[in-house]
Records
---
Amino acid sequence: MEFGLARLVNDSDAFLPISEQEYHSISKAKEDLFRMLFLEETFDLVVENYLEMETCLLESAAQQMVRGIQDYEWVHGQRRGFNRRLGNFLSACRSYREYTEKFISDVLCDTAIVGARLKSLFGGYQETSASYRIMEQLRNSIQHHGFPIHTVAYPSGWKGEGDDSTLVYGITVYAESASLKEDLRFKKSVLREIEELGGSIDIKFHAREYVAVLSDAHEQLRKVTQGVVETWDALVLGTVEKFSSAYPQESTAVGVVAFRREGQTVTGEVRIFEEFIKYRKALQRKNGSLVNLGKRFVTGEVQGKELKKK
């Protein structure tokens, strides 16, 4: 049996021998890189679902600003939409958290100290972040009890004085402890926290804080895996370059294939290409640090200097 690199297309008979160890290293590197890619995709799912929920709330506030609050059916139709997006967001968060733990177990199993530290991440947040505890419980409640957004408010009021004054419109969605009590599985300690916060919690605030916590965990995971991921990247990209150097006339636009060959029988094909590495790096750039998201908000306010031009 021999191992090698080729293009495996009809118009090419180029074959570059490699060792069995090289073959297995290439195969493992690609497998782990795809796991890392899926981790970035699951985090992107969290961010995209969060952004969709925030955008939905802003759109509803804009409708209220222009048309005024509609009838009972309209208001509760809006609430249903918010709950649907909140459910999608919390489901994405749960998927991310569960896959992160699997990733740590599968990929970092040879680095026990790093793995142990990362596994303790979510347990640490459970101790230190009220928003983490609350949102985790709301996710559980959606699964077996009901939707957690019970009240929608459209506060408005004048800001400033005289000609520079503006009428500000907003939106707040609340979960109420009185309704959450009906869920007998809802953790009593978290319910007490909500009651200590006045019995009504602002979902927007806690969703932002929750994303900030997950972003912090994701940043730490990126940092501790950076070295090994760069090694995997170098191995995959170096494999393509190695073949290109040996056969410069052969196109590697769609990558090369590492495989086992015994006689005329080819098995264990592993396609090696660079596009999925570029894609992962693009997701990393797209979803940067959100650790201070709880301190951010979007406003449609017109600046004072523009008002004075009237």
---
Amino acid sequence: MRTISLLTTMIIGVVFFACQVTSASESATRSNIYLDDTRDNYLSGWKAMITNAYPVDALKSGRWFNPAPVSRPFLHVDIIPFSNELRAKLHDNSTDALIVVKDSAIVAQYFRYGFGIEDIHLIHSSGKCFTSFAIQTVYDRIGTEGLSRPLKAYLPRLEGKFFGESTLAQALDMKNGMEWSENYDDPSTATMLSGPVGGWDPLNSEKGPESWYERMFDFPKYGEHGKTWVYSSGSAVASAFAGAAIEGRHYSELVQESYNELGFEDRSWYVSNAFNELSAEGGQALSIRDHAKLGRFMLEKEGSTYVDDVWNMTGDKNDPADSVFLKKYPFAKAYKNYWYKLDDDVILAFGSSGQFLYVDRSKNLIISKYSSFVEGQGAGEFADGLEIIGKIAAMY
């Protein structure tokens, strides 16, 4: 299977280029109340497990969303347990939960001790595709003309900013040229500075509460819009803001409606700041069964330009922006609306510490995996995670 045969190059692309992170080590010391109260390396080891599985308690601020008024559960069938060997691999890969959905039925599952199918878990950057999905109806309605308008046309507060000149389509495809670094080991990088602004981390005592508009869209020019590819959390947040502006409603309303459309069964939580700006770059915390429901939507929905654009995306090595992406991510054929295309029938979303949403339309198969990697961006852990998903996919 092409997806698995390219695991090595996939990991080089994902970890080194996307995250630009070296292996994290647990350097912080324990406090006198046992639990280490520092924020250092909070994506590593047991801190990742606490943050991922208990975001309401571990992160600075957020808000709850309701389950759908009419939920749409997956079908119930007899669960065939994984082999002891596969369970050991899942355990060794710091897996918190994994479910396999085949033909809209949960056919296999794994849960670490203490974590259940209804428990919420941070989904990190796999949540970016939930962000683009939340504005799916907007995307379908405005078409190419609307997607080609600059962000400043929808968000006047971006007027005069280089970032505001990029289009909504470019923001959804990471093809805007504003500099942005996702290095979690450097406290001065854009992604780390965004923590207190978004609601992830304690506030900077000198600045107090900040809107994303105050500095998160002001980073220097990296390249021409549309002619380069820069992985940017700011792009996802701006896309959410733009979709809400087009609708004339708060983004949280679009989020709730998108969850209703998917038929969420459980309450969910979303990182947000004092201005009720949702951390749309990956601040969603969902149950694993609700996480998999976006995969079902991508398999079932007909007549949606958004869905068709994702499945039909292609990468052109002669296109300046695509060439940057394809060089950095040789495992993938293309990238659109925050989805990676692995093969003609396989798309993938993934996020920090090992969150995966794998969708194969040729098999009508969805695999959702939650993890808390010891090394938050560890290359070996990502490789092992993808290998496990590949082994499971080959079983169906």
---
Amino acid sequence: MFKIMSGLTLGTALMLSATAGHAALSLSDTRVIINGKSSSSVEVLNNESVRYGMQAWVEGSNGQDPGKALVVTPNFQAIDGKQKIVLRLLSFSEPGQQEQLYYLNVQEIPPKPADNGRSQLSMAVRTKIKVLVRPAALGAQRKNAEEKIEVSRGGQGLVFKNPTPYYFAVTKITAGGKTYSKTPLGTFAPMSTVDMRNISGAGSSVSITYLNDYGGANTAELKVK
């Protein structure tokens, strides 16, 4: 986040930061999926009436530069007020056995504030969304793959296992009459196991809510083994 601050107290700066969720630049999608060595695109809209700058880059799941495995173009662009541009994401990854997770970052660059002799603060919001590169051979089996999640009882709760080659975005778990959100299953990696010790009192099944490829919410009932 870029900041230009002059003559502001820390308390004022923190208060304004809390309202910075009103981004000038917004994206047309909440996630991008690329099938194999191909490309996909996402639109960037300038919601303001003045020109904003835009910087875009991609990173791996642990923040590293993916190099030529995934490229976004353009990297820098000026966007006029109420106009939009198209970002293109190109995958050069070799076919693998499971999905690969990346992130697209879009940083807005606000226009220079007019010098009116007053203290000013300029906030620049960065938007970050998931980019999944899916081997072409895995596309046909992806629909409702979340129903294959395995649930078993652990020593102090429930254990969730993802036996598939896909990333899942589970937004909510309902078990034993209680609902749990913001769990580690929000980015449930392929072939991984998550021990949810805080979930207790589950019956013979649990219900999950997850996001599909298009960002819509689906539900699935999973048996507890």
